[in-house]
Specification:
With about 160 residues, the protein is α+β, with helices and mostly antiparallel strands. Helices cover about 30% and strands about 15% of the residues.
Amino acid sequence: MAKINVNGRVHDVSAEPDTPLLWVLREQVGLTGTKYGCGVAQCGACTVHIDGAPVRSCALPLAAVQPSQKITTIEGLSHDGSHPLQKAWVQLDVPQCGYCQSGMIMAAAALLKDKPRPTDADIDASITNICRCGTFNRVRAAIKQAAGDTRVASLDIVHVHRSTT
């Protein structure tokens, strides 16, 4: 039996020490917002925070997590969607399929904690998550909006009507 602190609550979990944290969070704790993407810590869909730092939970064994460490999942970022990143994500219609987005938001939250006004270079260096739908431009715009950057380029969609005759 192991103890883990997730989103401010201590949970007793029963899993093998080599079980990835991702599966403990999803199956033992019941928090399914953190997604499985690749299983080798490359895509970032499984990103959570441990003591404020972004961590790929699919490759982190339960044994590596200490009871004193604080784990934050997408569900713990804000209980009502009021985090500035969550608001920006909605306002800019960032997700397409949405599968990778909880990991993207968690990576972006860690970036903004460390660099409240990130440059494009900061975003490029910190957001290494993969989005197969290609929403990277909207992700960048949402990070800048959440940071209060008023110089964000407009992402308005322009519909072109073509004559069929």
